[in-house]
Amino acid sequence: MDENGGQAFPSGAASNGAGAANGVKLPQVLQQSFGEVQGILEHNRVLIQEISQNQESRDADGLTRNVALIRELNTNIARVVDLYSDLSGSFARSVAAKNAADKAAGPKRPRSNEQ
C-alpha cells in the first residue's frame, strides 16, 4: 500500500491500454478500464438500436448497412471480452504481488496500546 492507503499497482500488471505504471493505484486502473468498457457498451446500445430500426424498415440499403453494423458490434464485444480478461489478470497479479510482499515482510506483530 502507498502512503494514502491505496494498493499500488505493480509495474506491467495491466496491458492493452489499461494504464498501469509505477505508482498507479489499482482503483484508478479499474476505474479507467471500466470507463472504457462502459463507453463501448453504450456505443453497442446505439448500434443495436440502428440494427433493429434497419431490420424493421426492411429497406435494402438499411439491411446492407446492418452487415457492417453487426461486424462493428462483434468487434466491440470482442474488445470488451479482452478488457475484462486483462482486468482479471491484472487484478490477480496485483493480489499475488501483495500476498508475496506480505509474506516476505513476515508475520505482523500485534500493536500494543500500552505506552
From TrEMBL:
Where does the protein principally reside?
A: nucleus
**Where would I find the Protein EARLY FLOWERING domain in this sequence?**
25-102
Q: Which UniProt keywords apply?
A: Biological rhythms, Nucleus
Q: Can you tell me where the transmembrane regions are?
A: none
Q: Where in the cell is it found?
A: Nucleus
Pfam (any one): Elf4
This protein's GO cellular component annotations are: nucleus
- Which top-rank group of organisms is this from? Eukaryota
Which GO terms of type biological process are on file?
entrainment of circadian clock; positive regulation of circadian rhythm; rhythmic process
Q: Which family does it belong to?
A: Belongs to the EARLY FLOWERING 4 family.
Protein known as: Protein EARLY FLOWERING 4 domain-containing protein
